[in-house]
Amino acid sequence: MARSTKRGGKKNRKVVFRKNRLKNKWKNEKKKRGIRVQNNLIQQAWDKSASNKKNMHRMGLAFDVNDRLSGMANEKASSNEDNQTSKFIETFEEELKKRYVKSNYLPISELKFLVSMMEKHGEDFEAMERDSKNYFRRTSGQIRRAIQAFKKMPMQYNAYLLLKNAALCLHHKEDLHSNLTELSVFLHCCYLLEV
């Protein structure tokens, strides 16, 4: 007589093939869809029939950065293949340079904050840190770096100095603080006109 399953006897189970079939179905779906690349150059150069690793190697890009860094990927390709990859990399770099232009201006809200802090406290960064207008609770180091960045932007900082000197020449110190918003709008308009 067979032991009951309660006492650790053999349990008859049906074999379920569903899991593996679902996994294979998803793999096939992924292959059909291909990769989603938002860069047009890579999308045009991509070969759907080849593997990801071969595509990346053909374009001259690293599939596994660790292999490249450790020097294990020292496969020497033909000179024709090298020329194709170098052309692709050159066009890719040119496109990236065109797309990402560094903006040399601060947003209006940042300008208002920095100019008001500079007018109120001068170069005392600890006082700026404790100021009630420091809504984001920036540290003195963060404020110092932001002011240094503002001073390195010649267009905005020079416009600020010109307006500050003009207001001081007119002896309207109380008007200077009220003109901060006008100053920030003026600086932002200068940026828009220059671009």
> How many individual domains?
2
Briefly note the structural class of the backbone: mainly alpha
Number of helices: 11
H/E topology pattern: HHHHHHHHHHH
Q: Work out the helicity level.
A: 55-70%
**DSSP strand count:** 0
Describe the largest sheet.
none
Shape, please?
Answer: elongated
Low-confidence stretches: none
Beta percentage is under 5%
Radius of gyration, Cα only, in angstroms?
Answer: 32 Å
Average pLDDT metric: 76
In whole angstroms, how far apart are the ends? 91 Å
Describe this structure as you would to a colleague.
Its main location: nucleus. This protein has 195 residues and is an all-alpha fold. Helix content is 65%, strand content 0%. The chain has helices at residues 18-33, 40-45, 52-59, 65-70, 79-99, 108-121, 125-130, 140-151, 154-169, 173-178, 180-194. Helix 6 crosses helix 11 (180-194) and helix 9 packs antiparallel against helix 11 (180-194). The model has no long low-confidence stretch (mean pLDDT 76).
